[in-house]
TrEMBL record:
Source organism per UniProt: Neotabrizicola shimadae
Record PANTHER family: FLAVIN-DEPENDENT THYMIDYLATE SYNTHASE
EC number: 2.1.1.148
Listed NCBIfam families: thyX
Protein function: Catalyzes the reductive methylation of 2'-deoxyuridine-5'-monophosphate (dUMP) to 2'-deoxythymidine-5'-monophosphate (dTMP) while utilizing 5,10-methylenetetrahydrofolate (mTHF) as the methyl donor, and NADPH and FADH(2) as the reductant.
Chain positions recorded as FAD binding sites: 89, 112-114, 120, 217-219, 223
Active site: 228 (involved in ionization of n3 of dump, leading to its activation)
Name under which the protein is recorded: Flavin-dependent thymidylate synthase
Upper classification of the organism: Bacteria, Pseudomonadati, Pseudomonadota, Alphaproteobacteria, Rhodobacterales
Reaction(s) the record says it catalyses: dUMP + (6R)-5,10-methylene-5,6,7,8-tetrahydrofolate + NADPH + H(+) = dTMP + (6S)-5,6,7,8-tetrahydrofolate + NADP(+)
Length: 306
């Protein structure tokens, strides 16, 4: 993980000068503010700012009940109700802003979540660092034979070593050429104009690191985590999501507990799946052929229900 000296100094200064506030404060998130948490070989994620806490979710939900209405449930119960019945607006009252350093190919997958505000480090104005994501040997795997998006068996021996060497060599060569194109002098010292940064960057590989600020409300952040912190998500984005989830658990513990229970730990059933379960409970033996489900649906059903 590499923060610049200026970023380190900024984080230290901000943590050293706390300020009194009338805003709602989450003690768990205050402990997280500005501190970078390492991810992958050179990446990190840190919280830059946040708004709201569990109480903000409850406040937003109860505002529509009208003055004088009794609180018939405690905060945890209300939050669980909101999560259980897929209410979204109260969770949108909380927001968080992250500073994230990540490989470009992960960023391109991440940006598919179009419900955040994003500002990325610009390689038009600045020169990218010589930092590349090189997987650990245990993350080098063959293509899955049952999932077009997934990994299969881990590569071993000479094949794994060859792949790692190719990744390292190609990344180094591409960056060398990037520097040569930017330079105003050829290797022998002959002056040259040097290629514009916005053009030279096209030669860089997808495993080079970029950085961005990513701001999102809690409702959409939960949606991101449900997909990307899932065991089926690609490893490289999943461990960012898992680190982010630990931060969210400290920020809004009641909401995160409900999210874990109903979204991460829960299961959504189709009408056909409900019908199969009812038939099974009545003692009937049901197979894929008479379930009304496709093979893919049935495989996913069996993974959960046996």
């Amino acid at each position: 993980m590499a923060l610049t000296p200026d970023q380190i100094a900024e984080a230290q200064a901000l943590r050293a000068t706390p300020r009194p506030t009338l805003r709602a404060v989450s003690e768990g998130m205050e402990a997280r503010l500005y501190t970078p948490h390492p991810v992958l070989d050179h990446g990190f994620i840190r919280v830059i700012d946040y708004m709201g806490d569990d109480a903000a979710i409850v406040q937003a939900a109860r505002v529509s009940y009208g003055a004088g209405t009794k609180k018939v449930s405690d905060d945890a119960g209300l939050i669980r109700y909101l999560m259980r019945h897929w209410h979204s607006t109260p969770f949108e009252m909380c927001e968080v802003k992250f500073h994230i350093k990540l490989p470009v190919f992960v960023a391109r997958q991440w940006i598919r979540h179009r419900t955040a505000n994003v500002n990325e480090y610009s390689a038009r104005y600045s020169i990218l660092d010589r930092e590349f994501y090189i997987p650990e040997p245990g993350q080098l795997a063959a293509q899955s034979t049952v999932n077009n998006q997934g990994r299969g068996a881990v590569l071993e021996g000479a094949e794994a070593a060859r792949v790692l060497e190719v990744l390292k060599r190609d990344a180094a060569t591409a960056y060398d050429h990037y520097e040569e194109m930017l330079s105003q002098a050829q290797p022998d010292g002959t002056p040259q104009q040097g290629l514009a940064r916005e053009l030279a960057r096209m030669n860089l590989p997808m495993n080079i690191y970029t950085q961005w600020y990513w701001k999102c409300d809690l409702h959409n952040l939960f949606h991101f985590l449900r997909l990307r912190a899932d065991a089926h998500a690609q490893y490289e984005i999943r461990i960012y999501a898992e680190e982010m989830a630990r931060m969210v658990a400290d920020w809004v513990p009641l909401a995160f507990a409900a999210f874990e229970d109903y979204r991460m730990g829960g299961v959504n059933l189709s009408a056909k799946a409900v019908a199969v379960l009812k038939r099974r409970l009545n003692g009937e033996v049901v197979g894929q052929e008479d379930s009304g489900m496709s093979k893919g649906e049935w495989r996913e059903f069996v993974e959960v229900w046996g």
